[in-house]
Every structure is written in structure tokens, then in C-alpha cells.
Protein: Biotin synthase auxiliary protein
Amino acid sequence: MYCDRCGEPGTHPECTAARELEPPRYCPDCRRRMKVQVVPTGWTATCVEHGDRHG
Structure:
């Protein structure tokens, strides 16, 4: 499992706090950089291997 903010293994308190305000940047399953689209009602992050995540 990888951090979805910085891409490093595990979870980090500073990344967890920052994620309350921003969408994920890395896939937590494979560490690939995701394509992120932010709209006023939320966000969509897409991994080429694992698909979409919404928030």
C-alpha cells in the first residue's frame, strides 16, 4: 500500500492532513501517478491500471 499523496510506502500524518483539502495524486495500489480532474462538486482521479476514484 502506498501513500496517495506522495507515492511513498505506508501512510504519513502530514499527507493524511493535506488530503482533507486536496485529491489523491498517486494510486495507492500501484504507485502510478493518476490523472486528476477537480470540479466544484468534487474530484475524479484515474489510474490507468486500477480505474477511477471519486471524492
Summary: The chain is about 10% helix and 25% strand. The mean pLDDT is 96. The longest strand covers residues 42-47.
